[in-house]
Amino acid sequence: MNLSTIQNTFVKIRSNRLFEGFVIAVIIFSALVIGAKTYNIPQEVLRIIEYLDVFITVVFLTEIIIRFVAEEKKADFFKQGWNVFDTIIVALSLIPVSNGDMALVGRLLRIFRVLRMVSIIPELRILLNSLIKALPQLGYVALLLFIIFYIFAAMGTILFAEINPYLWGDITEALITLFRVMTFEDWTDVMYETREQYPFSPLYFISFIFLSAFAFLNMVIGIIVQVLEKEGSLEQKNDLSRSLEPTLDDLSKQIEELKSLVLAQQLANKK
Amino acid sequence: MNLSTIQNTFVKIRSNRLFEGFVIAVIIFSALVIGAKTYNIPQEVLRIIEYLDVFITVVFLTEIIIRFVAEEKKADFFKQGWNVFDTIIVALSLIPVSNGDMALVGRLLRIFRVLRMVSIIPELRILLNSLIKALPQLGYVALLLFIIFYIFAAMGTILFAEINPYLWGDITEALITLFRVMTFEDWTDVMYETREQYPFSPLYFISFIFLSAFAFLNMVIGIIVQVLEKEGSLEQKNDLSRSLEPTLDDLSKQIEELKSLVLAQQLANKK
Amino acid sequence: MNLSTIQNTFVKIRSNRLFEGFVIAVIIFSALVIGAKTYNIPQEVLRIIEYLDVFITVVFLTEIIIRFVAEEKKADFFKQGWNVFDTIIVALSLIPVSNGDMALVGRLLRIFRVLRMVSIIPELRILLNSLIKALPQLGYVALLLFIIFYIFAAMGTILFAEINPYLWGDITEALITLFRVMTFEDWTDVMYETREQYPFSPLYFISFIFLSAFAFLNMVIGIIVQVLEKEGSLEQKNDLSRSLEPTLDDLSKQIEELKSLVLAQQLANKK
Amino acid sequence: MNLSTIQNTFVKIRSNRLFEGFVIAVIIFSALVIGAKTYNIPQEVLRIIEYLDVFITVVFLTEIIIRFVAEEKKADFFKQGWNVFDTIIVALSLIPVSNGDMALVGRLLRIFRVLRMVSIIPELRILLNSLIKALPQLGYVALLLFIIFYIFAAMGTILFAEINPYLWGDITEALITLFRVMTFEDWTDVMYETREQYPFSPLYFISFIFLSAFAFLNMVIGIIVQVLEKEGSLEQKNDLSRSLEPTLDDLSKQIEELKSLVLAQQLANKK
Question: Does B265 touch chain A (CB under 8 A)?
Fold first, then answer.
């Protein structure tokens, strides 16, 4: 049994629907195991779960290896974003869950195995790709929103730092506090506190809320218009097929040619 | 008077607008009775309400029986979702409101009689049908949203369970807490609590809010685009009638044929 | 000087732009007076304001009388909704602001004079008319939303009335509490309170939030689609003008007729 | 070296991409300096920052002078809104950050230098221009919203001023409180407080929330429809180019002319 035969077998396994179903089942199962571990469970069950964890790790590792071997050109494997994504997740979950400092990190990294759900279900992959594609186009509104935040945060720190250093101590704190104000979470408490010293502080807060809400609204509308335009441009592409058809102008010229032919004949007949 | 005559009578009753109006009136009345019972009312009135309750139950039961008898093929009756819906609601409200353990359940089930409003008013039925039809298409965004929730909940339990077991004790608690954070309800209290131990916890909360809000926003935009597309496709169907018309291409060919005829004649004349 | 001359004079006054500007100025001024009265102001200023109040009332009364006299058919005057609206507001503000029980009512009614701003500025009148027209079409979604509220309120009263009678005592209280939950205002406090007795109470709250948000969302989307459709139908009306043009089908028939003429001639020539 | 040569050199500098990149870098750097100053930093670093501040001020001043000299017609320089904007920001940041009363003002004004980011990046400038253009068209809905706010604020002051003078003391306070209610921030606390004296106060709050939310919603929908229409009108302009093409009507006339020619010939042949 040579290498090529192994590869063929692996290609078959990779495209097998049963194998795909099995991997999805293991992903769901690993998510359930992660959830189960958060409950108070007896020691025996916890030990079983640990064995299951090793089993899940082995399955994931095997699957990646199968897909890697099945790939004809090994270099192409890492050119696909989702393969890199899967490999990193599997590699990271190899960190042992010992009782040391790394235990917490190991446990946290195992959670990301649930993300493999996204990479294995094509519909989720498409959805996420389109979400990520939508992001850069929002860049400038996001930058504007950040400038608004930064200016208000700097003003807030200069004005209110002495009133409540916990909320306005430095610019990072002020940015968090402004994000809180933007979500309307107890923003009046924050305002009333500053108002004792600065009677006009409501102006600061209300203008911030209006500006940030207005910029945010424009971001949302931007996405809606973008999506609707994309739909529109798809329709226009369909209309492109029609452009191979003759235009009304072409028809008009054809009729004119015909007319001159008929006229030429009439002149010929008269002679 | 044979069975067929009874059925005919019942068919007439069913399609009688007065009968329909009466049933709607009884449904509204039953809703008012449910509401009235929640106030402190004297014993005598309560007794009258109990008799009214029996009366409502009898009316609903009679109405279902009339509609069932009026149906020609009995098997078809239960093929219609709304008939099954009505029958279950009426059957469940037959549970007696005694003073035992079932009293609470009986009273709760009687509330669902208000839902019969949906099944009897055609416009509400259509509205609900269209809402339910919109749900499966949102499936994948909902799944993505759930994966985001699950990963953050698992992380939250591992990191914050010891800080506040009431909010982060197990994954169910963490999911509820994250839903709370998503609604912006006192999320800063939850954050500040965890921040003492983990100075970077605002990153966890703000990234969660951004991711979930972004996924949710996409769900909303998805519905809007879907609805607008449906409208668009209806218009395209209207455009289909036009497609039976000749295209510009057809016209061009017709003119070319005409031209060759005229040319042929000219050649014939010259000879 | 007879009645007809007076009427003509009043018609001229009514359509005078200066007169309209003066009335708008008095409305704004009356709004400012209402605002000024809420501040701690010395007795002397208060007395001046009282005189101003009488002045404003006289101006409004005069304006209504001018518009009434200027109307040719007196019966038509009250057929226009906005005239009735203005007359009621002016009539109500005639109630004297004495120191009795009616003083509060009189002061409240004077506030509604600000609403005359809507009836005098045509753009605001159009805007409000279009908002009111949009309402009935939302009727069924609003009814569905109310049914959801009513069922949950009835369930809430039965289940939670003993836990917190202030929030769930009767169905009115429960409806207010649910409205509060829908606005996410301290809804977790309400939930955690009930959770001690009913561990599954989060299900009640989260399902309510989802159902009401979903119904509300549909209402919003309904308005957007409605508005966009209205725009669309306007465009279609513009397209109607094109329908007087010949269709491609008409052209095709014309060419066919032409072809048969040419063919007939060829046959004639061959003979 | 005469004046004209200097101007040419400055025009070259202004359009140099490196110079533009340098100015952007200085703006970002000035933003970072503003942020850095909010942290607890040792005296020595603070002194360096002060020198950097002078450096930034000099760079900005130089840049404005270069752009002013490079302008051919000096009067045109201040006709461009963004030039005026830049000049004001730079001029204001010339106020010295001494230790007097003006120190706070000077520090606040320096923050606005971050706004130069908007004026130097063309995409942000276009974005802001389009946002500002969208504002006036929202004017009437904003006016309606303000009338709703004002009427409810006046009512609130009259009714609730004695219950809680801090929230309802005068019309300014009442407007702030209503804005708070509109953001749903602890609105139930405000309501329950007033409810003890006025049992129907929930009606006041709920009707306010509905009216303001409805008006606000209309504003949002207004923007969406506006943006989509603008896109639509752009497409229609593209359609205008098609209008130079012959219409179907023109074609029909051409064919009719052709037909009459053929008929005329047939008549001639028969003779």
Answer: yes
| Helix extents (H) in chain A | 3-15, 17-36, 43-70, 74-77, 81-92, 102-111, 116-120, 122-137, 139-160, 165-168, 171-182, 187-195, 201-240, 248-270
Residue appearing with tokens 């917490």: A104
CB pairs < 8 Å spanning A and B: 118
Nearest residue of C to residue D236, measured between CA atoms: C235
* Contact between chains at B38 and C174 (C-beta distance less than 8 A): yes
Model confidence pLDDT, tens digit, residues B189-238:
999 999 988 989 999 999 999 889 888 877 777 777 666 666 555 555 55
User: From the centroid of its chain, how far is CA C57?
Assistant: 26
Those residues with Cβ within 8 angstroms of residue C99's Cβ, 6 or more apart along the chain or in another chain: none
C235-271 burial code (b ≥16 CB/10 A, e <16)? eeeeeeeeeeebebebbbebbeebbebbeebeeeeee
CB D205 within 8 A of CB D155: no
Tens of pLDDT along C17-71?
888 888 888 888 888 888 888 888 888 888 888 888 888 888 888 888 888 888 7
From A141, A101, A124, select the one nearest A221 (Cα to Cα). A141
Calculate the alpha carbon distances from A258 to C202, D249, D258, D260 in Å: 80, 18, 8, 13
Residues A140, A119: contact at Cβ < 8 Å? Answer: no
Asked if the Cβ–Cβ distance from C155 to B227 is below 8 Å, we say no
Of A158, A171, A269, which has the smallest distance from its Cβ to D269's Cβ?
Answer: A269
Q: Does D212 touch chain C (CB under 8 A)?
A: no
User: Could B39 and C184 be called an inter-chain contact, meaning their C-beta atoms sit closer than 8 Å?
Assistant: no
pLDDT in tens, A150-183: 999 999 998 998 899 999 988 999 999 999 999 9
Q: Give me the pLDDT at residue C222, please.
A: 72
The alpha-carbon gap from C260 to the nearest alpha carbon of chain B, in Å, equals 9
- Closest listed residue to residue D90, CA positions, set D73, D127, D72, D65: D65
Q: Are C223 and D221 within 8 A, CB to CB?
A: yes
- Please state, in angstroms and as integers, the Cα–Cα distance from residue D123 to each residue in A221, B187, C6, D129, following that order: 17, 35, 62, 10
> Touching check for A154 and chain D: CB below 8 Å?
yes
In this predicted model, what pLDDT tens digit does every residue of B58-71 receive, in sequence order?
888 888 888 888 87
Q: Longest C-alpha distance within chain C, in Å?
A: 117
Predicted ipTM of the assembly: 0.80
User: Chain C partners of D150 at a C-beta cutoff of 8 Å?
Assistant: 31, 35, 114
Q: Give the pair of three-digit tokens for residue C53.
A: 């109040």
Q: Tokens for A140? A: 């400038």
